[in-house]
């Protein structure tokens, strides 16, 4: 099957061409990383679910920053529209400056500002999957550097790494990331792609994780078995400049105030 063949023969993790459905392959499309107004996203969870359905995604992981919102209505809407909604969180670890790890398939919030090792342990202790989010960005915050990722993987294996994402990167970053993945495949888990969606219909599903099957359980199995592939979808429209500016305010001013006030980030401490 094409998905598996690509993974074995392509250590550079070239994104799959989006031809599998027309070729009769049965694989699902997942957005594994997305935000709502519970953190710095610009849409409600229900709007995001509708956008995911319009983008022909069968699984949507909602991963707000340092918070695990109640998603009952979104999960119910998803079941009507054929979208499995997975509860997750984008956890800020190693603060300052803070690097981002995704916790997928969790039921309780994971506390922010722990070490990356403790964060991965806290995710695994409740049966969740830990994913390195948007690595190798040229920023001093939010993103794991090659050195940071190596240090984490020496201590703990993770369940996946975003090999393709929509965050700004320098030239040659994808090649460096692919080389890193080839060298650390045993410990870095599944090859994943995400849009890191903050704008609902404007950006959900631009970069997806393709996986055998359709359901959330299929996605989980595929991550564990490493039969996923990142897939960039050409032609998807992005948010406008005005939307980006408004979102930046939410991200850089409003959300830090929420953290300071303790309204987000208060998961239970990790005991070692
Ligand atoms: Zn992030
Ligand atoms: Zn994010």
How many domains, as an integer? 1
Question: Roughly what percent helix?
Answer: 25-40%
Q: What is the H-and-E element order?
A: HEHEHEEHEHEHHEEHEH
Q: Supply the number of helical segments.
A: 9
Strand content: 15-25%
CATH architecture: Alpha-Beta Barrel
Q: What are the low-pLDDT stretches, counting only 5+ consecutive residues below 50?
A: 1-24
The fold-level CATH name is TIM Barrel
Enumerate the strands of the largest sheet in spatial order, edge to edge or round the barrel.
7-6-5-4-3-2-1-8-9
Number of DSSP E strands: 9
- Write down the Rg: 17 Å
Instruction: Give the class from helix and strand content and strand pairing.
Output: alpha/beta
Largest sheet: 9 strands, mixed
The CATH homologous superfamily name equals Metal-dependent hydrolases
Inertia-based shape: globular
CATH class: Alpha Beta
The unique ligands bound to this protein are: zinc ion
Distance between the termini: 42 Å
Characterise the protein shown here:
With 272 residues, the chain is α/β, with parallel strands linked by helices. It has a single domain (2-261), classed as TIM Barrel (Alpha-Beta Barrel). The chain contains nine helices and nine strands. The protein has helices at residues 2-9, 45-54, 72-81, 116-125, 146-155, 173-183, 185-188, 216-225, 241-261, and strands at 27-31, 59-65, 84-93, 99-104, 129-132, 160-164, 190-193, 207-212, 229-232. The protein has a nine-stranded mixed sheet with strand order 7-6-5-4-3-2-1-8-9, sandwiched between helices. The N and C termini lie far apart (42 Å). One zinc ion binds at residues 90, 100, 133-134, 142. One zinc ion binds at residues 33, 35, 90, 196.
């Amino acid at each position: 099957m094409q998905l598996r063949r690509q993974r074995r023969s392509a250590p550079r993790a070239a994104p799959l061409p989006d031809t599998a459905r027309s070729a009769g392959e049965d694989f699902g499309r997942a957005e594994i990383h997305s935000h709502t107004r519970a953190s710095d996203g610009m849409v409600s969870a229900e709007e995001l679910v509708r956008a995911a359905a319009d983008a022909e995604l069968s699984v949507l992981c909602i991963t707000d920053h340092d918070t695990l919102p109640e998603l009952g209505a979104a999960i119910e809407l998803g079941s009507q529209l054929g979208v499995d909604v997975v509860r997750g969180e984008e956890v800020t670890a190693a603060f300052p400056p803070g690097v981002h790890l995704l916790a997928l398939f969790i039921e309780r919030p994971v506390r922010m500002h722990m070490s990356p090792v403790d964060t991965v342990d806290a995710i695994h202790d409740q049966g969740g999957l830990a994913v390195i989010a948007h690595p190798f960005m040229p920023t001093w915050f939010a993103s794991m550097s090659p050195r940071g990722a190596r240090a984490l993987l020496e201590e703990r294996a993770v369940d996946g790494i975003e090999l393709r994402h929509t965050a700004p990167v320098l030239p040659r970053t994808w090649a460096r990331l692919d080389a890193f993945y080839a060298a650390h495949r045993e410990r870095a888990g599944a090859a994943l792609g995400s849009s890191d969606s903050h704008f609902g219909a404007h950006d959900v599903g631009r970069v997806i994780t393709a996986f055998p099957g359709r359901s959330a359980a299929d996605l989980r199995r595929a991550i564990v078995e490493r039969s996923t592939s990142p897939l960039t979808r050409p032609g998807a429209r992005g948010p406008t400049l005005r939307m980006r500016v408004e979102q930046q305010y939410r991200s850089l001013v409003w959300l830090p105030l929420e953290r300071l006030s303790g309204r987000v980030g208060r998961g239970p401490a990790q005991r070692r």
